[in-house]
Amino acid sequence: MRKENSVNLENELALETACPFIYALSLMGKRWKPAILWKMTEGCYRFGEFKKAIPQISEKMLTQHLRELEADGLITRTIYPEMPPRVEYALTKLGASLQPILEQLNDWGEKATKLKMTK
User: Fold this and answer.
1) Whole-model pTM?
2) What range defines the domain where residue 85 resides?
């Protein structure tokens, strides 16, 4: 947690405002967010499905990142009035627009991994 008036926070906000590239990375750049977004290109996910698809992520981090992605307008959270309640997460139009970028990152990552292994 940072203070609301910290220089670090002010610098971060100034960078995000001045540079669209930095802003884009701030939306999807935390450790687990790209993995969550990548999985969601396949369709809607429930919390338990995320845990199975990304077993290394803790429940706390998954919850935090899902909330941040929702607040940033990249995903929606739909609660179905059933017993027990069912919650599904899906990409918004803005979130879905990341799919080509995520595919390119995935392709690049595969190539980089192969190159690294041949060294």
Assistant:
1) 0.79
2) 30-118
